[in-house]
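Q: Can I see a sequence and its folded structure?
A: Here is a first one.
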Amino acid sequence: MGEGTAHPAPDLSYLGRSSVATFLYGSSRTVVLRLAYALARANDPHPYWVEVRDPNDYLDPPGPVEMGWIPDDHLFVVSRSEAKPQDAVSNLALWTVVRSDEPRSVLGGLTDFLRLPSSIQEVLGRYGGEPVRPVFVVSNTDRVREYYPRNVSGVRGVIDAMLHGGVTPIFATQGPPGPGRFAFDVVCDVRAKDLSHWQEGHLVCERGVENSPFHEGAEISLAAVPAFAGALKGEPDPTAT
């Protein structure tokens, strides 16, 4: 598994306390999505889930949505077309929400926020800014990768828009990812062949936060973390210990 330092039972709640953006990717969509859910639940008992999927998309073996783990009032299904960034809308809308003397940093943040799909903007506007940051999982982002920037600076603008909106984002995608993933504070490669082989799998941090459970080079055994193991076994409450 390489020369990374093993962390068999990390404090998963670090992500929510530190207000960082996390990116998970791997070859098995089911494994990645179930891990994203377990990670979200460890940081927020009632996380929100944005599912990028079209009506004919179905995941087998099932992920959190198919398993019924996401309550209806916390689930937002967005089609590929609905997930396109709102460039034209943002250019027009900016004139109605900013003054000519707004600092450049503020203007840039608003521009990036308004480029997010209107459905996600609505969700962030409704639930962001709570006393405790809610966790938002944005799943299946590989399905709309072609619509968004692929370089670090472009991707970071989208991330900052969510962080400034008062939420903790976790993005989950089926790999292989592009270089834009390094715009995230924590980037983890889910090395598990499929759901049948999850006990042999590891979460490997490509990018992380120094002196944290998710530091660069950390290798976390999936079987050694109760929340991960529960989700991968299909338990209704994967964070139960």
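Q: Show me another, different protein.
A: A second, unrelated one:
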Amino acid sequence: MKHLNYTETRKRQISFFLLCTAVSAGILAGAVYSAGHSADNPWIHQYFYPAHCGGTIYEVFTNTLISLLLFIGTAFLLGISAFGQPVGIIMLIYRGFGIGASVAYEYIHKGMHAMPSVILLILPECTAVIIISVLAVREVIRSSNSIFLYLTTDVSHSERTFRLYCIKFFVLTVISAVISVFATIMNYIFSGLR
């Protein structure tokens, strides 16, 4: 029994690491993209770039929350599809792209003076967002695989499984709201760094 628990824990760690690799690839692509292009578009910076988060506290909160909820909502819908796995991976790359583009764009415009805003405004939010994004996509892959197996073999797929899936995404939604509040507070406190 201990061996099975160890194996499950090891599988989770490996899958988490592989999903983080997808985010890292996106960060690298976003940084390279920003070297030659503007990251002013919200579809590019995904509201990680402090100067484009919004002018008021309400705008910062709303923009951050909408960006997070769009990601979580899309992930939820992909998880109830038998073919959501590859799109979930693409979503992680896209999320990383926004982070890489925002950080690179900040350094391009401010040089080394960007370091305080990156450390205080971008990095904490991005770390939390990466974690919930990876957890959401991991659930997408699990659920999507389960549905695919249900459709192609005789593996059971219970109502309880779907209820647990919904609960997990509800928790991720609540965490997204907390991250939005945190990002808003940080942007308010360190508004001079923007």
